[in-house]
Amino acid sequence: MSVDINILNPVGSISTDLFQFNAPTGVLPDLVLKYENPNKVLDLAHPDLVPLIERMLKEIKKFDSRDCVIDYKVRSLKTGDPGSTIPGFHIDCCNDIHDDFEPETHLIYSTVQGTAFAVNPIDVSRYNSVHEVLKNESITEVIGSTESVHRFTSKVLHRCPIIEHDCQRILIRVTSGFKDRLKRNRK
């Protein structure tokens, strides 16, 4: 695949509301797993979330046939907590806005407050970082609905919400292609 290294948020790199999944009621045990093997996540996940994870693993193959890893985050959060350890708009898997690797594909699901996706294509040929892009460009964003699965690539700027009230937030992200990036980077 040919990657345009100078475009963030390319047309076709975001699809919202692929399918809905009703979150389990009640409080689940907090558990955070990052970039884990799907079998491990399926073994450790709350049983009420296993059907969602299995469907996400099946759905991602429609977009990307590479191997997958999963982020599974069931966390109790307080008002003002960030939904992610990376504040503000960012790109996943790589900090280089001119990255030439075939973009990873992500499917993301969350409860409480949705992820905000930048949807306007941005030519970054004159910038060196996400910070410079944000300082100089207008961002058009769409906030993904909760309890719904969304697709985006690692060339999409996105940000997680600041939590508005004490809650337990479920976030599951299935990523295709991350293992290939690691293999390339080890060479």
Verbal overview:
By secondary structure, this protein is an alpha+beta fold. The chain has helices at 38-44, 50-60, 130-136, 178-186, and strands at residues 7-8, 14-20, 31-36, 68-77, 105-110, 116-118, 122-123, 141-143, 148-153, 158-159, 167-176. The strands form three sheets. Strands 2-9-5-11-4-3 form a six-stranded antiparallel sheet, with helices on one face. It has a three-stranded antiparallel sheet with strand order 8-6-10, with no helix packed on it. A two-stranded antiparallel sheet has the order 1-7. The longest helix has 11 residues, at 50-60.
Rounded average pLDDT: 92
The low-confidence parts are none
Q: What's the number of helices?
A: 4
For the biggest sheet, the summary is: 6 strands, antiparallel
Reading the helices and strands in chain order gives: EEEHHEEEEHEEEEH
Structural class assignment: alpha+beta
Kindly state the number of beta strands.
11
Bin the strand percentage: 25-35%
